[in-house]
Design brief:
By secondary structure, the chain is mainly beta. It folds into 3 domains: 3-136, Jelly Rolls; 144-238, Jelly Rolls (Sandwich); 247-340, Jelly Rolls (Sandwich). Helices cover 2% and strands 55% of the residues. The protein contains 1 helix and 28 strands. It has one helix at residues 3-10, and strands spanning 38-39, 45-50, 55-56, 63-71, 75-82, 87-92, 98-102, 105-109, 113-121, 128-136, 144-146, 149-155, 160-166, 170-177, 183-189, 193-197, 206-212, 215-223, 229-238, 247-249, 252-258, 263-269, 273-280, 286-292, 296-300, 309-315, 318-326, 332-340. Strands 1, 3, 4, 6, 7 and 9 form a 6-stranded mixed sheet that branches. A hairpin with a 6-residue loop joins strand 3 (55-56) and strand 4 (63-71). The longest helix is centred in the first third of the chain and has 8 residues, at 3-10. It is elongated. The two termini are 46 Å apart.
Length: 341
């Protein structure tokens, strides 16, 4: 996905948080006698129950109950559904426009006014008691940070921009995490530097890792599918050997960063013996090639655990060329060890 795609996707209607059984009010039947609209206040816990007498959604047969809330502008709202009911929350404004669908539901109110919170079952067999719990979320919003450092933010609409100061050249990892949406990051910096990531972190989180020069960088934090929600940005420094000469002797234990293609090391073996060479990574599929005197060549892809690479070879004294690469051209942290057995 390109940077332009990020701007297009995140700039779309932020109201559609996910697809599901929730429908516009016109799809719902007339309120049943037991489906009175209850007024609730922010911070209040209110009990309700879906029964056969509750309002009927004519499209999927689910039942619903409506609550009314008066909200102020710039309120970062969280509404949760507690109890045995298997349900979902929907938020509408005064014009009956759908703003958010989720459980728990989070939304930043931009216009003061009267809002409707609809509690509905996920299908026609969803009944039972529940509690609606609402509160405000307090965030200390910042637009700049220095590595290492972290910040929290709220995304709703356009991507959120951060300025990140890298104090000294080295290896860094930037994580964008969210439980509310599929995170997407674009990072730009000095000398035309630009990189983006969608799912490089755990689950659907975004991660960028690289050898960065000291300077000021900009991060666009966005959502892959127009969703809104809370997120965190964390910038960490990594303990990585960035020696461009890459000369090692057995035994060796180093941390490397796969950046622009294979990393080639000069490996010196001083004593004959059996050696185990491991390349491990949580984010890469490692591959190893060892070349030495008299046409010696050994290769491995998945000889270690969890797609890691391992060579176990009897080596004579001499100078070898050890090439560390990954199966796909990805960037990421890896470890390289050479140990006698």
């Amino acid at each position: 996905m390109t940077k332009n795609t990020l701007s297009l996707v995140a700039g779309g209607a932020a109201a559609v948080l996910l697809t599901g059984c929730q429908l516009a009010p016109s799809s719902m039947g007339s309120a049943a006698p037991g489906d009175t609209v209850k007024e609730i206040s922010l911070g209040e816990r209110v009990r309700g129950e879906l029964t056969t007498q509750s309002g009927l959604n004519r499209k999927d047969g689910s039942r619903y109950q409506t609550f009314a809330m008066t909200l102020s502008a710039d309120t970062l709202l969280e509404i949760d559904l507690e109890g045995s009911l298997d349900g979902v929350l929907t938020l509408y404004n005064e014009q009956d426009e759908l703003l958010a669908v989720a459980s728990p539901l989070r939304y930043k109110v931009t216009e003061p006014g009267d809002y409707k919170v609809v509690v509905s079952g996920i299908d026609e067999s969803s009944y039972g008691p529940f509690n609606v719990v609402s509160r405000t979320i307090d965030l200390e919003l910042v637009s700049s940070l220095t590595a290492p450092g972290s910040a929290s933010g709220w995304l709703q609409g356009e991507p959120v921009e951060f300025t990140v100061t890298i104090p000294e050249s080295g290896a860094y990892q930037i994580d964008m995490r969210s439980d509310d949406f599929d995170a997407l990051m674009v990072m730009t910096g000095p000398n035309g530097y630009e990189v983006e990531n969608d799912d490089g972190g755990e689950e659907y989180n975004a991660r960028i890792g690289d050898i960065l020069n000291a300077g000021e960088y900009r991060i666009q934090a966005g959502s892959y599918e127009q969703n809104a929600g809370l997120f965190t940005i964390e910038v960490s420094s990594l303990n990585v050997d960035i020696d461009e000469e890459r000369e090692i002797s057995a035994p060796a234990d180093i941390a490397g960063w796969m950046r622009n293609g294979p990393d080639v090391y000069t490996l010196t073996i001083e004593q004959e013996g059996v050696y185990q060479i491991d390349m491990r990574s949580d984010g890469l599929d490692p591959m190893l090639t060892l070349e030495g005197p008299a046409g010696y060549v050994a290769e491995d892809d998945d000889g270690g655990d969890n797609y890691n690479a391992r060579l176990t070879e009897r080596l004579a004294p001499g100078v070898y060329t050890l090439t560390a690469r990954c199966y796909e051209e990805n960037r990421g942290l890896y470890s390289l060890t050479v140990a006698p057995l």
